[in-house]
C-alpha cells in the first residue's frame, strides 16, 4: 500500500506540474491575445479617428440617416460650414434638415427621398436657407442600403455646396446673353456696313450709269424730234388730200399732191417711221433694264432672301451695271460652263461680282481682257474673274481682304470692297481665293456649295 501511495502521489505530482504548465501556456496565450486585442482596438480607434478626420476635412457634407424617421446616424463637420448650424443640432432635431430647405424646393426634395427608396439612388439640386438668410445651392447624391429582407435600412449621401458653381453658371449665362446682344449688334452694324459699301459702289458707278442712261435717252429724244416732223408732214399731206377730195378730177391739184409727196419722200418716211419707233422702244427698254439692274443691286441686304437663282443671270445683270466702267478699257470674254442653280442671297453675290469686275477694270491701265468663267467641282459651283492688268504685289496678297486696306489713291476706294466680299462668301459657306503675279494680272475664284443656306 505504501508503494501504491507513493506511485499515486508521484503521478498526481506529475499531472499537477503538467496542469500548471498548461495553465501557464493558456495564460500566456490569453495575455498575448489580450495584448493583440488592445493593439487592434487602438488601431480601430485610430482608423476611425483618421476616417472621421478625413471626412471632417472634406468641403462636402457626408451623412447617413434612417429613411422613415430621418434620424441622423452620421454627419461630418462640413454640415456646419454649409448650413451655418452645428452638427449636434441636426442629430438632436430630426426635422431640422428638412426645415432649412428653401420652401419652393422642399416638396421636390421629399419626393426625391421617396423615389430613392424605390430606385436605390437619386441625384437632386436644391437650395437651403442659412441663419443669416443667405441662400446656398446644394447638389446631393443619395444611395440606399437595404437589409436582407429588402427593406431600406439607411440612406447614405454626399452633399456638395455648388453655390459658386451656380453663380458662375448664371454669370456665364448672363455673359452669353450679353455676347449674343453684342453679336446681334455687330451683325446689324455689318449689315449697315454692307449697305453703305453697296451705296458707295452705286455712287462710284453713278456717272457711268448716267452716261449709259443718257445715250438711249439721247437718241430717243432725237427720234421723237424726227417723228414730230414726219407727223407734221403727214398731217399736211392729209390736209391736202382732204382739199382734193372735192375736186379730185382737177389735174393741177393732183400734180401738186404728187410733187409734195416727192418733196417729203413719202416712201422713206413710211419705212423710217417704223424703224424710229422700234429704235425708240429698244432704247426705252435699255433704260428700263439699267434702272432695274441698279435697283436690284441697291436692294437692302437685310431684306434679301435665300433663293435658287442662276449665277449666269447675276453676272449678266452686274455686267450691265458696270458696263461703262469696263467697255473703254477691257474686252469681256465669257466662258460659262453648265452649272446648276445655286441657293444664295442673289443681291449680295451680285455685289461681290461687281466688286471683282470693277477692281479688274481698275487694274487695267489701257486695254486688256476680263474673262468670266464658271464651272462645277464635286458638290460646289465656282466663278472666276480674271484680268490681264498689273496684278497684285506679293506683300499685299495677305492683306487684300482686310477692312480698309486699299492700294488705290485717296478718294478712289474705301478699302471695304474685298473685305465685304469675303464676308458675303463666308456667309454662303464658301471660299474666295486669289492667284496673281505682278505684271500678269489676277484671278479671283469664288467657290460656293449648291445650297449655300445649309449649315456646315
Euclidean distance between termini CA atoms: 120 Å
Percentage beta strand: 15-25%
- Report helical residue fraction: 55-70%
Residue ranges: pLDDT <50 for 5 or more in a row? none
Strand order of the largest sheet: 2-1-5-4-3
Shape: rod-shaped
Structural class: alpha+beta
Could you tell me the radius of gyration in angstroms?
A: 50 Å
Number of strands: 12
The CATH homologous superfamily of the domain at 304-456 corresponds to Histidine kinase-like ATPase, C-terminal domain
CATH topology title of the domain at 304-456: Heat Shock Protein 90
What's the CATH C level of the domain at 304-456?
Answer: Alpha Beta
Mean pLDDT: 83
Compute the number of helices. 11
Query: What is the succession of H and E elements?
Result: HEEHHHHEEEHHHEHEEHEEHEE
The CATH architecture category of the domain at 304-456 equals 2-Layer Sandwich
Largest sheet: 5 strands, antiparallel
